[in-house]
Amino acid sequence: MSRIALISCISLKKRYECPAIELYSKSPTFRLAYTFANLAADEIYILSAKYGLVHKDTVLAPYNDTLLDKSEDEKKAWSKGVLAQLDKIVSLKKDEFVILAGKNYCKYLLPVIINYWLPLEGKRQGERQPALQRLIALERETKLCKAVHLFFNMLPRMNYQMIEKSFSQQE
Predict the structure, then answer these.
(1) CB contact at 8 A, 31 and 25
(2) How far apart are CA 96 and CA 158, in angstroms?
(3) Contact at 8 Å (CB) between 37 and 100?
(4) pLDDT tens by residue, the chain, 171 residues
(5) Tally of CB atoms within 10 A around 115
(6) Edge-to-edge strand order for the sheet containing 3-8?
(7) Cα R_g (the chain), whole angstroms
């Protein structure tokens, strides 16, 4: 079983043809996502709106394409293509996926991928960089006690009313 990281492409790109890892490296968020993926996964692929699934070393020309302006049918077709590409190189049923992409990029992938983790789920654009920095710090921490402390600090803060509401919903 392998752990595969999927990072979404970003609009900020280099202006010349180069390996995908370099093409997207202008973006601080992409660099942080890649750093985290490098620590947390065995393999890294990029979800490109134009090219589908891209290996980090694949040479690409700059482009301006995003899934944000695509119709739902186009997003489904794009996802179907990505799943077909993934199915040729990894196991969609056995491998674990760390998905560092927004809803548009993973919405139609998730029903097919069995084991996945969405570390940025629910994070808005401005919250992603700090979240990635915390995840990187956690992955790099070698002292177990400090790692546990970092982990618990990443959990949502709850007050008395939130806890009470949570227990009353379970009844």
Answers:
(1) yes
(2) 30
(3) yes
(4) 899 999 998 888 899 999 999 999 989 999 999 999 999 999 999 999 999 999 999 999 999 888 888 999 999 999 999 999 999 999 999 999 999 998 999 999 999 999 999 999 988 888 899 999 988 988 876 666 655 655 555 556 666 676 677 666 665
(5) 14
(6) 52-55, 43-48, 3-8, 96-100, 115-117
(7) 18
Contacts with 16 (C-beta within 8 Å, 6 or more apart), sequence order: 62
- Domain limits of the chain? 3-122
Q: What share of the chain is helix, strand, coil (3-state, %, to 5)?
A: 45, 15, 40
Q: Is the dihedral of CA 150, 6, 40, 18 positive or negative?
A: negative
Nearest-angstrom CA–CA distance, 134 and 79: 29
Alpha-carbon distances of 86 from 4, 79, 89, 125, 131, rounded to whole Å = 10, 10, 5, 26, 27
Quote the CA–CA distance of 102 and 129 in Å, as a whole number.
13
The rounded distance, in Å, linking the Cα atoms of 93 and 76 is 20
The pTM of this model reads 0.81
